[in-house]
Design a protein that fits this description.
The structure holds two protein chains of two kinds.
Chain A lengths: L1 H17 L3 H8 L5 E2 L23 E11 L13 E10 L4 E8 L4 E11 L2 E2 L7 E11 L16 E14 L2 E12 L10 E12 L4 E10 L11 E10 L2 E8 L6 H6 L11 E9 L1
Antiparallel strand pairs in A: 1-6, 2-3, 2-14, 3-4, 4-5, 5-7, 7-8, 8-9, 9-10, 10-11, 11-12, 12-13, 13-14
Chain B lengths: L1 H19 L1 E14 L4 E14 L4 E7 L4 E2 L2 H11 L7 E8 L10 E11 L2 E14 L2 E11 L18 E12 L3
Classes of the chains: A mainly beta, B alpha+beta.
Chain lengths: 286, 181
């Protein structure tokens, strides 16, 4: 009797063993590969500032950005829409990790050029890594002739430099954030008391509302500021809307410019008193 | 004594079943096409896992969605983020039976494979005519079929209706090797 039970038991066991689900075998055999976390942000900008996203290899992006006047200018100025700052830019992926950009802003007739390099990527899997790191550097050239003809600004005096470390983490598919330590150097300042070097820390977030729409926010905390102007930290709130090769960003911000050296260090408007500029970024990838 | 024999036979039988009759590949190929007047979209995945249990006429396939490669990186991102939602549904799977399955020879033999395919978290029964062929000790399998995106709750925005086909053509080629666990 004992033997029969034993036999039955072993038979049952072996039957169970061989009846193991084929999909379970495939699960077991699936190689452990590292997965690079993608789409931390939708666009190459969180709103005003850069996100860790790069243009991919050999992709060219045409970017048009607008910032209008303050909405509290009222109906006579059509809530700021009569005034418009524009920046055109071409941004190109030299490879998946390195993007080069050239832009032109109407504000102070400024040309800008940047490089953005992805150093570390957020990864899941065997060699997981919790966040992504990119380096960003830009030069801006101010060409507006706002000087006394007798005291011409030289080329070197018209230059501004920005260095940023972009540190971002996609916490879940619906929430990402980025910390952006920023250094801005101005070759020329308005008065001697204005610092040539300004340090700031940016904080950006993305909350995905659905597959194609997300709510973004961005704030730059300045650690030192110009004395000649009543500089304020820049704040922006906005919506990303994605359709195929386009990303539309609708923005409300107290900054009127679209390049780092300006919106981080030269914003003077107070968001909470209604000095809000409506704006948008449109990108088309080729 | 009798039962000892029985035990031994059982053992051998079960051992035989698991080790000799299963065939597996970890680098099967699946390609899909979406073809419209405006744009052709193609993606390839060469890391598909497939297993055949020849003794039970069963077959299973496991596909990592993120392993599909597109020509345009942006398309690949949209595929994962907007359509297949691969963070939420990382795998597509198939599990089914090879109908009227006999021996596989070195000549092409066509069998219907019937089972449940799960994509984007939605399961559906399909029947796929598949060619089986033995090559030495490997079993080679290939075939193609069409899938309707709407069957799997994959929605295309109106703006892109002209660029993405409603029906996607899928082709597969797996070269299974004997599998001993």
């Amino acid at each position: 009797m004992k033997k029969i039970i034993c036999t039955l038991f072993i038979f049952g066991l072996s039957l169970q063993y061989s009846a193991q689900d084929l999909l379970d075998i495939l699960d077991k055999e699936t190689p452990q590969v590292d997965q690079i976390v993608t789409a931390t942000f939708k666009g190459t900008r969180i709103l005003n500032g850069h996100s860790i996203e790069n243009r991919k290899d050999k992709e060219l992006e045409f970017l048009i950005s607008h910032r209008f006047g303050r909405v509290n200018l009222g109906f006579d100025e059509l809530f700021g829409l009569d005034q418009s700052n524009i920046r055109f830019a071409l941004e190109y992926g030299l490879n998946d990790d390195l993007t080069i950009g050239l832009g032109r802003s109407s504000f102070e007739k400024t040309y800008d050029s940047f490089l953005k390099y992805s150093v570390l990527k957020q990864k899941k899997g065997a060699n997981s890594f919790p966040f992504a790191v990119s380096l960003f550097g830009s030069i801006a050239l101010k060409t507006i002739k706002d000087f006394d003809p007798s005291d011409k600004r030289t080329f070197a005096e018209s230059l501004f430099y920005v260095g940023q470390v972009l540190i971002a983490r996609k916490v879940s598919s619906s929430f990402s954030f980025q910390l952006t330590p920023t250094y801005v150097h101005r070759n020329t300042v308005r008065i001697n008391e204005d610092p040539h070097d300004i340090f700031a820390l940016g904080l950006g977030t993305r909350i995905k509302l659905n597959k194609r729409v997300s709510f973004n926010s961005e704030y730059f905390l300045n650690f030192n500021e110009s004395k000649s102007i009543n500089a304020r930290n820049s704040l922006a709130l906005g919506i990303d809307i994605e359709t195929g090769g386009h990303v539309f960003q609708l923005i409300l911000s107290n900054a009127i410019t679209m390049i780092e050296k300006s919106f981080i260090t030269e914003s003077t408007d107070n968001f909470f008193e209604g000095d809000i500029h409506f704006g948008f970024n449109i990108s088309r990838t080729f | 004594m009798k039962s000892t024999y029985l035990l031994l036979i059982c053992f051998l039988f079960s051992y035989n079943m698991q080790s000799q009759e299963q065939y597996l590949t970890k680098n099967g190929a699946i390609t899909f096409f979406s073809s419209t007047i405006i744009e052709d979209i193609k993606a390839e995945n060469n890391q598909v896992l497939s297993i055949i249990d020849a003794s039970k006429s069963k077959m299973a396939i496991s596909i990592l969605i993120k392993s599909f490669l597109f020509k345009k990186a942006l398309m690949q991102e949209h595929f994962n983020e907007n359509y297949l939602e691969s963070d939420k549904f990382p795998k597509a799977t198939f599990k089914g039976d090879i109908l009227n399955f006999n021996n596989v020879s070195s000549l092409d033999a066509k069998y219907d494979v019937k089972g449940i395919i799960t994509i984007h978290g939605v399961s559906k029964e399909i029947v796929v005519p598949t060619i089986f062929k033995r090559n030495g000790d490997t079993i080679f399998v290939k075939g193609e079929f069409d899938l309707l995106l709407e069957d799997f709750d994959i929605k295309i925005p109106r703006l892109l209706l002209k660029k993405i086909a409603k029906e996607i053509n899928v082709t597969f080629e797996f070269n299974h090797k004997p599998y001993n666990r």
